Amino acid sequence: MSEPGGLETLYPFLYAGLADPDETQLRRSTQDKIAEIVTLRRSLAHLHGERLVACAQAMAAAIDGGARLFTFGNGGSSTDAQDIAQTFANPPAGARPVAAISLAQDVAVLTALSNDVGYDLVFARQLAALGRRGDIAIGLSTSGGSANVLNALAEARRRGMLTIGLVGYDGGTMARDDLADHLFVVPSTSVHRIQEAQITLYHVLWELTALR
């Protein structure tokens, strides 16, 4: 049997020695996960409501001044970063498009920088080349400790950009080092729930910014 903390932590009924999991257990597990994320998402309005409004106002002011948006993250957070960039760059009818790019979307650039300067700098190096004062940088990290995300936020701050962080757990190093002008911490220890809640946060942020 594998060590605790793997799939058996998520789906204990699959590792109970049963040939076929009980349908009731499967249904209950799904319902429990749905209830968990619904509760977490609902808590975000109370936890981050005022902060979301303040961040949206800062973003709107920056965009009015010609700011471009750069997003970045690893793994699932990279996918979410691409979603943010796509949402701002190609919004529904009636909303103003924003020049936005996800820094992990170009495989050639990502692999070249990883090979030449190291993976910890793949996002920071791009911001050093592309970012300018007044632009916006959004970094996503479930742990708040992803070195390349932290380095990118530090570079963005050095360049006078507006920095925004989406993290989980207790905010990690991103929170402790105060690297984001606007920080949104999802209070959960589940990577799945954190990322699901972050989707809610950045879509609300987009609506507050773009549809003001």
Overview of the molecule:
The structure is a single chain. This protein is of the alpha/beta class. It has eight helices and five strands. Strands 2-1-3-4-5 form a five-stranded parallel sheet, sandwiched between helices. Helix 3 links the parallel strand 1 (69-72) and strand 2. Helix 2 runs parallel beside helix 8 (191-210). It is globular. 38% of the residues are buried. The mean pLDDT is 88.
Strand percentage lies at 5-15%
Counted by DSSP, the helix tally is 8
Q: Gyration radius, to the nearest Å? A: 19 Å
Instruction: Give me the strand/helix succession.
Output: HHEHEHHEHEHEH
Keywords:
212 residues, alpha/beta, five-stranded parallel beta sheet, 11% strand
Summarize the structure.
This protein has 212 residues and is an alpha/beta fold.
Secondary structure elements and pairings:
Elements: H1 7-10, H2 23-64, E1 69-72, H3 76-89, E2 100-102, H4 107-116, H5 122-130, E3 136-141, H6 147-158, E4 162-167, H7 172-176, E5 182-185, H8 191-210
Parallel strand pairs: 1-2, 1-3, 3-4, 4-5
